[in-house]
Amino acid sequence: MSAGRVLVVDDEDDIRELCRVNLEFEGFEVVDAANGPAALDEASRQRPDVIFLDLMMPEMDGWEVLRRLKEDDATADIPVVLLTARTGEEDQMRGWHEGILEYVSKPFNPLSLVEWAKRAMEPRDAADEAERRRRILEKLRLIQDLRDR
Description:
This protein is α/β, with parallel strands linked by helices and about 150 residues long. It has six helices and five strands, in the order βαβαβαβαβαα.
């Protein structure tokens, strides 16, 4: 029996393969997509339990993919973990505002993928998640304010 279905979206073959190997080793079924349009198609057809999404991709960037996922009733509730080289507070704040579950900077520890996938599939209280998101955004704003001084 599968531990869950994960969609990995990244234009880099090596990143997709790294994710696949680590997740499949722990019993997850892995579907992948190399670009935004393919990601939206796979998310709609496969209904993954969690999506690992890169931001910087050709054709359609991760922000557009995330927006479309959240606008579609069929995919709006799928937890999204951003895996990205973009580390600035602005990007992180945007991700949290747009409803991500986690923001992970590249390079990342591939062994952590399994923990993020498992966390994404745990039942979550909407109020607790909203409070967690609020605290993270507040902390990012404080960091940004300190840098802007």
